[in-house]
Structures are given as structure tokens and as C-alpha cells.
Amino acid sequence: MVLNDYKSQDLLTLQTVLGETSESGLFAFRGDLVLKEGPLHEGSDKRKPPEVMLSECVMLADEEKIKFMSGSLDDVADLKLLIDKYAVDFSEDCKLLFFVINTSKDMQVKMNDFIISLITLREGMAWNELMEVLYIEKSDLKGQSAADKVLTVYQAMSDYQAKSELVNFEEALTNVTQAKRQAWGAV
Questions:
Q1: Residues 112, 109: Cα–Cα separation, whole Å
Q2: Is 186 exposed, middle or buried (0-12, 13-18, 19+ CB in 10 A)?
């Protein structure tokens, strides 16, 4: 299974969900996805922490292909890392929606024959924003397993129609700000 392959390669971190949904043959993941691994420690086969991540990643996959992916990117430019590393595993009809910290506007980006929705996220949690964008209420998820909640999100994506402008990746790179991810916690 493609998600287990990622796990064995240490590409899945902070995993909160990794399991089969009630729909046979579909598997869900929630956690962080490595886009660029850290360098190897000197004289070791162990890696330093990842350099670039897709935070709060949500994925649904079958045995061989990813059918849906969402999460939070710090930089529009990180989209290229994601596509270069993972697009080979996307199904032809893969649904892709990402929240981006430094984008100046919502947009759709065409890359490798995929239309990718990018939505500005200045603060908050990508999962909560995803629920809002897809009009999913807490009551819609009540009583479901963690994996089935991801399945419900995937099903809601089939009705999602982005209203933002379609641009190529080079144009998307011109629509950025200096915004950075807000760090929360003890001071």
C-alpha cells in the first residue's frame, strides 16, 4: 500500500491516523508529510529533522494511488517539492487542496495535469479550515472512526468547486507575501 510505503521511508510524521476506512480498499492518513528530508547526520545513516513539510496532511489512498490530499504549506514554492516527490502516486482524478501561509490570494494552479486549489491560511488549523471550505459540520462526522472522517472529507471534495483564478505555477509564485507560520506555545 502506498501509505505504508511512505511510512517505511519515514515520510509520515506526527501520525494521528493511518488505517483502513469502512470502504474496503481505502486507507486514510492524518499527520505531517515530509516534502524534503533533512541531511544525514555526519558519519551516520540517520537523518536530521525534515527541512520542508506538508503540515496537517490529510490523505486518502487505495492500494496503489493517492485519491485525495490536503494540508498546510508554508510557501507557494513548496508546491513544486510536493508535486515532484508525490505526483507519481496521484490517481488521475486526485483531488488536491492546500492551505498556504504566504499566498496573497486564493488560486488554482495547473501542474502536471492536476488542478490544485490553494487557499490563503494566515492562522488556524488546516483541518478546521477544510471542514469550513467543504461545509462539513461536526454532526456530519459524529460517531465515525478517524479514518472514516477522512473518507467523508474526500466524498465532500467531489462537490467542491473552487471559484478562484486558474494560473500556472510561475504566476502563482508571483502572488506571495512575507507571511510566516504563527508559532504558538509557551513563551
A1: 10
A2: exposed
Q: Is the pTM higher than 0.85?
A: yes
Q: Within 10 A of 9 (CB to CB), how many other CB atoms are there?
A: 10
DSSP three-state, residue 130: helix
The three three-digit cell numbers of residue 34, written as one number: 515530509
- How many domains does one find in the chain? 1
At 112-141, the pLDDT tens digits run 999 999 999 978 899 999 999 999 999 999
Domain of 99 in residue numbering reads as 2-172
Q: Is residue 109 part of a domain?
A: yes
Distance of CA 79 to the CA centre of its chain: 10
For residues 68 and 154, is the Cβ–Cβ distance under 8 A?
Answer: yes
Domain annotation covers residue 185? no
Sign of CA dihedral 175, 81, 85, 99: negative
Has residue 187 been placed in a domain?
no
Residues comprising the chain, all counted: 187
Q: Is residue 97 part of a domain?
A: yes
Query: In this structure, what C-alpha cell is assigned to residue 37?
Result: 528530508
Instruction: Give kind and range of the element (H or E) at residue 155.
Output: helix 146-157
80-106: average pLDDT: 95
Q: Is the predicted pLDDT of residue 81 greater than 70, yes or no?
A: yes
131 in helix, strand or coil? Answer: helix
Closest CA to 102 of 174, 45, 155: 174
